[in-house]
Structure formats: C-alpha cells, structure tokens
Amino acid sequence: MKKLSKILIIVCLIALNPVIVNSAEILQIKNSNTILVGDQNRNLTIGLVCVDVNENDEIEATNLLKSEFPRGSKVKIRPFGIKENVLLAKVFNIKGTKEMSELLAAKNFSSEICPN
User: Fold this and answer.
1) Burial profile 18-55: b = 16 or more Cβ within 10 angstroms, e = fewer
2) Taking a C-beta distance cutoff of 8 angstroms, is the pair 106, 100 a contact?
3) What residue spans define the domains of the chain?
4) Rounded CA gap, 92 and 101, in Å?
5) What is the pTM assigned to this prediction?
6) Domain 22-106 belongs to what topology?
7) Residue 58: partners with Cβ closer than 8 Å, 6 or more residues away
8) Dist. CA 111–CA 50, nearest whole Å
9) What pLDDT, on the 0 to 100 scale, is given for residue 86?
10) 67 contacts: CB under 8 Å, gap ≥ 6
11) pLDDT band at 85 (very low <50, low <70, confident <90, very high)
12) Core-most of 5, 14, 39, 47, by most CB within 10 Å?
C-alpha cells in the first residue's frame, strides 16, 4: 500500500507540474498592419488580418497598438495564411482578452474588411 501511494504521489507531481511554454512576444510594432514577434529562437513578421487603416490615422493607430501591446508583451497568434512571405494572423494578448484587429476597429481606426 505504501508503494502504491508513493507511485501515486510521483505521478501526481509529474502530471500537475506546470510545463514551461515559450510564448511569442512583441519585438516591434512597425505600423498598424505589421508587427514583429519572436521567441528564444526566431523572429517572425506578422501582417494583421482584417485591418485597413486610413493613411491619416496611421500614426494614432500605431501608437494605440504600442500602448496596448508594449514591447515584450506575450501574445498568442492565430494564423490565417501567408502573403508575400508574411504570415497573416490575428494577434491576441496572452489572456486572450484583446486582439489587435478588433482593438483598431473598436477605436474606429480600421474598417472590418473580412468576416470573422
């Protein structure tokens, strides 16, 4: 019985031990459509999907993204495709509560140019 309880404790410790996950983080917000993310090994340029920002609002939209997603912020990426060697994706904060394209649309910097 003692041997079984020791095995159960070891299995529980292994199963419940948090797994270290290296998430992507914001390295640079180049403009309102393009960001650079990276992890410990590589960098990736991402084009935001469903974003069409007016030229007059470009600086304000970029500043909004920089304030809501500062450099070093951990993010989740949902890819939608590739265009001209740039990954098209939606980018969420690590908690999944904010998404860059939706943030721009909510502040009227971008019109929704594609369906959900």
Assistant:
1) eeeeeebbbbebeebbebebeeeeeeeebbbbbbbbee
2) no
3) 22-106
4) 9
5) 0.74
6) OB fold (Dihydrolipoamide Acetyltransferase, E2P) (2.40.50)
7) 31, 32
8) 8
9) 87
10) none
11) confident
12) 47
